[in-house]
Amino acid sequence: MKSLTKLKSVPLRVCSRTLGSDHAHARVAPKSEPPAIIPSDEAAVPKHFNEPVKMMASEAMVETFVRQKVNTVFGIVGSAFMDALDLFPEAGIRFLAVQHEQNAVHMADGYSRISGKHGVCTAQNGPGISNFVTGVAAAYWAHSPVVVMTPEAGTLTKGHGGFQEVDQLPLFEPITKYQGHVNNPARMAEITNRAFDIALSERGPTQINVPRDYFYHEGLYQIPAPSVPEKAAGGPKSIRAAVDLIRHAKNPVILAGGGVTMAGAEDEVAELAALLSAPIAVTYLHNDAVPADNPLYAGPLGYQGSQAAMYSLRDADVVIALGTRLSPFGTLPQYGEDYYPTQAKVIQVEADGRRIGTSKKVDVGICGDVKLAAKEMTEALKAGGPLASDENKAERLIKFTELKDAWTAKLDDITYANVDACTDRIRPRHALRALEKGLVPDSIVSTDIGNICSVSNSYLKFNHKGPSMLAAMTFGNCGYSFPAAMGAKVAAPHRNCVAYVGDGAWGMQLNEVMTCIRENVPTTAVVFNNGQWGAEKKNQVLWFGDRYVGSQLDNPWSYAEIARSMYAEGITCTHVDQVTDALSQATKNQEEGKTTVIEVMVTKELGDPFRRDAMKLPVRHLEKYKNTCQDSESSTGQPTDL
Q1: Contact at 8 Å (CB) between 78 and 128?
Q2: What does the pLDDT look like over 250-268, one tens digit per residue?
Q3: From residue 203, how far is each of 117, 141, 191, 234 by CA, in Å?
Q4: Which of 21, 58, 77, 239 could make a disulfide contact with 215, Cβ separation 3.0–4.6 Å?
Q5: CB 407 within 8 A of CB 306
Q6: Can you say whether residue 75 is alpha, beta or left, with left for phi > 0 and alpha for psi between -120 and 50 degrees?
Q7: Is residue 288 classed exposed, middle or buried when 0-12, 13-18 and 19+ CB atoms within 10 A define those classes?
């Protein structure tokens, strides 16, 4: 391990804690490992790319990685795949060793979503692989092309209940697009290659399951070339039907989802919106689907989203849903209003045909690539007759401007309400606004699940094209944000990567600060310290008589101090004036190769509940429990220890 460079401590003026000299250490990130490169010179192409060549099965797997242009694998070292691991340095593949296998998958997830390439992870058979499950489920619902290589117990001992044995295929069956079990070592390259191809073409995680003794097989292998199926806009009939609906729409609204970013379709969506003068709402946790500086950008739907987006959608007569599966969670009522239009015609463009019309009624479903579909519809609309939406264009734009202005004013009101009453703590919304101001252009933000992190949906805006927002999506697991931000940093070392996380979920991922230091992955974590599992405590406030069972967190320590003990930088903010400057300092630290944990001391104030649709006041019949009955919700909606 390289020696640590001791840096002179420079106190941050605005922060209540300074960086002590004993902890002011950092490692500067080196240049990335050289990627695996396929020579452009035909004569230099390896012989085994064109014809069978004698090699070990482990060599066949690694060379398949090389041909798929893998340059990073996340995981924890294990004997089960060590024969292949030993080849990584010579193959130009960096093995990034993590602290927990779940986090390896989240890193691969973040890496894949930012790079547009495969994210790859591996671990020891049995307990190492079972730790992958949560991360793979999150990647599945995020449509991330993560390839999970799972070595398993050897063929001669499988079924004996031996050391670190578990049946690994059933674990991942419902959360993968493809499971490739290497049932014969001669098929190592074939099955490995197929897992990579399907992960990208079907946008989701795939599994390569390999009995550990098969790595030592010797045979003839030819490494197959990657297969990239040609994409299409969708069926001509469905495209024509969609164009006809749009042409006669008087108040069309575009709903842009994650598929827009995945397909690189921001320009095509913007062109369609401009043609129709249609507001563009973005789906929950896809605030980066369209640059926020587009004049037709309405903001995000979903939890604590933009009322301008919600009211635009509510009034639509035709909804053009592009690159979204129309998740039911992302369209739940907000601010006391069920805004999803029930009378509007809905056009859904989705690459996965099984998701069309699954959760919402759809009038026209287009199974196709959103970039190509948006372009084809725009061209057809331009070439055809007049647009009904042109007749009231000026009126609609005036109303849309009024909706945006009203939402901006309302958001300011709820952001700055009662802030003067806070002395040693910061209101969560006030902190989120200060962070919004401190984010530099081209930043990547990864948000965890939780009350404050989810309220950030009101504030996160991205004025640049390309993937910039990461979240665990509808799987909603804690512990996602920081490792995903780390994976993003590996994919895009030049971009500022920031994770938002509550103090509860931070306990599941703070160990990866050590990985940042060891592996030179400078990343910033913003930890909201309010001493509670806020999202669950909100339920206890509203429906369970303020009986806080399991939701209180006694934090006698400082997370900034813990970070400094790990040789990272640590900053604690107790006043809102410190927050923006702290993030600016963390951004500078990241440019210098340093990881920073910003501990933001926030009040116990809580936002709206996530699942009002799923909660009820408790009813008890046994006498011993009748004192826990509730006949009404909390009158204040806030904790008694606020």
Answers
A1: yes
A2: 999 999 999 999 999 999 9
A3: 10, 10, 17, 17
A4: 58
A5: yes
A6: left
A7: buried
